[in-house]
Specification:
- The protein has three helices and no strands.
- It has 78 residues and is an all-alpha fold.
- The chain has one domain.
- The longest helix is centred in the C-terminal third of the chain and has 29 residues, at 45-73.
- The two termini are 14 Å apart.
Length: 78
């Protein structure tokens, strides 16, 4: 079994209906509504720095998983 992370854009009033529809066809293990941060990113240097650190850390984690996952699962997860 594999986990998939999906980000979609919906109108606010469609979110609950989408979550319900999705749960009818899949096992939803995590569902989150993301905040709109475009203005914050454009106007707040500290936030931009935090986003850059998160991006760098996420890449390091993904690279580590790619390079070591076979040891734990016997197969690669690209």
């Amino acid at each position: 079994m594999r986990k998939v992370n999906l980000t979609v854009e919906l109108e606010y009033e469609e979110i609950q209906q989408f979550e319900h529809w999705l749960s009818q066809f899949t096992k939803v293990t995590y569902f989150s509504v993301l905040s709109e941060t475009k203005e914050m990113y454009n106007e707040d240097a500290l936030f931009r720095g935090l986003v850059a650190h998160k991006k760098k850390a996420s890449k390091a984690i993904a690279d580590y998983i790619h390079n070591h996952n076979e040891k734990y699962n016997g197969k690669d997860t690209e």
